[in-house]
């Protein structure tokens, strides 16, 4: 399935996690003209190979740091297990990325508040 071409000024997005929800967000971001699905990150090379088969223009990463260092990526959607939400989201926010985080936000109210404070 080829991605729709992004509109001028589209938000460059990366999806982190190709488990249960990740493929849905990958499909939706690639179909929207207002977003440019730039990259996908997952630790599992087999999941990344499936993404590459459907979206050959998308950059693939197993290294989160390399993805977050990419200045062309404006925002990340995090679709990983809840225990990883806080460290990944805080790293993304510190890298200057906008963050979409699936629910639950984090595993505790303290870490959720820390993310809210960091995002502010």
Globular, elongated, flat, extended or rod-shaped: what is the shape? globular
**Biggest β-sheet strands, sense, barrel:** 5 strands, parallel
Order of helices and strands: EHEHEHEHEH
Share of residues in strands: 15-25%
Number of strands: 5
Strand order within the widest beta sheet: 3-2-1-4-5
Keywords:
alpha/beta, globular, 5 helices, 120 residues, 41% helix
Summarize the model shown.
With 120 residues, the protein is of the alpha/beta class. The chain has helices at 22-31, 45-54, 64-68, 82-94, 109-119, and strands spanning 11-16, 35-41, 59-61, 75-78, 98-101. It is globular, with a radius of gyration of 14 Å.
Model description:
The chain is an alpha/beta fold. It contains 5 helices and 5 strands. It has helices at residues 22-31, 45-54, 64-68, 82-94, 109-119; strands at residues 11-16, 35-41, 59-61, 75-78, 98-101. The chain has a 5-stranded parallel beta sheet with strand order 3-2-1-4-5, sandwiched between helices. α1 links the parallel β1 and β2. The radius of gyration is 14 Å and the shape is globular.
Write the layout of secondary structure elements.
Blueprint lengths: L10 E6 L5 H10 L3 E7 L3 H10 L4 E3 L2 H5 L6 E4 L3 H13 L3 E4 L7 H11 L1
Parallel strand pairs: 1-2, 1-4, 2-3, 4-5
Helix pairs in contact: 4-5
């Amino acid at each position: 399935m080829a991605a729709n071409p992004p509109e001028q000024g589209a938000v460059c997005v990366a999806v982190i996690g190709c488990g249960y929800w990740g493929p849905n967000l990958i499909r939706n971001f690639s179909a929207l003209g207002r977003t440019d699905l730039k990259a996908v990150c997952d630790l599992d090379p087999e999941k990344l190979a499936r993404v590459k088969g459907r979206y050959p223009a998308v950059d693939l990463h197993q290294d989160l740091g390399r993805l977050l260092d990419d200045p062309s990526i404006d925002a990340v959607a995090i679709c990983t297990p809840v225990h990883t939400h806080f460290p990944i989201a805080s790293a993304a926010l510190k890298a200057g990325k906008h963050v979409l985080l699936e629910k639950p936000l984090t595993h505790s109210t303290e870490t959720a508040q820390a993310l809210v404070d960091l995002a502010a």
